[in-house]
Design a protein that fits this description.
The protein folds into two domains: about 220 residues, Alpha-Beta Barrel (TIM Barrel); about 70 residues, no CATH class. The chain is built from eleven helices and 13 strands. The chain is of the alpha/beta class. Strands 1, 4, 5, 6, 9, 12 and 13 form a seven-stranded mixed sheet that branches. A two-stranded parallel ribbon has the order 2-3. It has a two-stranded antiparallel sheet with strand order 7-8. Helix 10 links the parallel strand 10 and strand 11.
Amino acid sequence: MGTLKGEALRVVKWGLRPWRRRTRAHALILLYHRIAQETSDPWKLCVSPENFRGHLECLQRRCDVVPLAELPVRLAGGRAGARTPVAITFDDGYVDNLSEALPALQAVGAPATVFLATGWIGRSQGFWWDRLAASVLKSGRLPERLELRIGDTQFDWERRAIDASEAVQRKRLHRALWQHCQTAPEREREAVLTRLEDVFGVASRGEAAARPMTADEVREMHASGLISIGAHTRTHRPLSALGMDEQRREIEGSRQDCLELTGELPACFAYPYGEFDQASPQLARGAGFSLACSTVEELAWARGDRFLLPRVSVGNLSAGRFDWWLRSLWLH
């Protein structure tokens, strides 16, 4: 019954959105991760450079692209004009944000915010989820059995010839390992990744194009004047899995790291994986941020909580499909 009630409320909410858009101040926050060509992309993080340029051209025609930090002021000012304010954001801090996204943004003069998982900046190895995917999904070797110790948990997996295709089994194994690694402390997770790379015969450096930025690259991006740097915790663990003290260290620590990287305190924060608990928004507010972003796919409304701002994830859509997606779901 609760599920049916929730679904009914969702339908009513979506049905009222065209009326709300015509009468109430609102904005759209877009979420990107990587601007790159990628053959294996289990979490759909990559948008090709060509498609991204098409997205920007569409946004320039149909919307007002504004810095994320300005959205609360725009929303407080009420509905003004027919063009929806849109903010562009990137999560994590991939190097292609500098090499591919920044030139495209500069070509049209569009500002953006890049949220850094600051503990990963400067590492030669890729983000842990990319290393995991490289081992389980991309390698040519799939073991018959896999036995791992992840903290206090024993992880056992066995390949089954009649259960499913190899591709399906790899996807299931990848998902199960991702769930274990997501909340694991960094030392335990690193031990698991190193073991997996040994079992699957994968080099630990990962793809150079998928690495995090260095400190100098962050400074170069920030010096462009178009990119605002935001904080995304230090270790990119879901805050809902951490105690209050550890959450505070992650949030405040990443803000201080951003200051040391750029010389400016960041105004904006984003919750890793979009996950948080009741304490997280208050901790972000107390750390000195002016707003924080989730991954709830909805428009940002004038009376909404600025520490729970929704964002809409953008897939690798062609320019034409992006234009249709933008107009049909978010602008009309």
